[in-house]
Fold:
Amino acid sequence: MRACRDFLDKALAGGHRQVRIITGLGARGDGTPRLRTRIEQEVLGGYHSHIETTAYEQGGAVIKIWLKSAPLRPGLAWQRHQRHDRDRVAVADREERYWVARERLESADQAFNEADFRRCRLKLNQVAREFGWEMAEGPVDEDGALRLLDAHWGRLKALDL
Structure:
């Protein structure tokens, strides 16, 4: 049974589409299928997803099996290209995310300079929500807004190495 499993594994790995399993004694036998039932029950059941059809030859002593074609595996060059594309998209997404955060922090700076602490808090909370930082709750005074603004700029610069 183990030899039959090894044979089927090698056939699948080699891309073979058709195999024959001899269940009798071979050339010296009388042609009776001595191992057919055991092979069908113990071996072929584990390979049912790889088997397209089966047929019998020589009175059932030979099981002829048509294997499904293996799915095409992408080559190394294609995998490298896909990885490069994913990395490029990730960098672009990260850069856009930082760019939006910088724009919002500059708007918060401008609002702080105009003494509009409500708008400053709004912009700071937008950046904090994007990166999962603590949010400013309730009204913010000048000292609180300045502290949050400095902290957010420092965190963004640390992320944007």
Observations:
- The chain has two domains: 2-67, 76-159.
- The mean pLDDT is 86.
- The chain has five helices and three strands.
- The beta strands are 18-22, 51-57, 62-67.
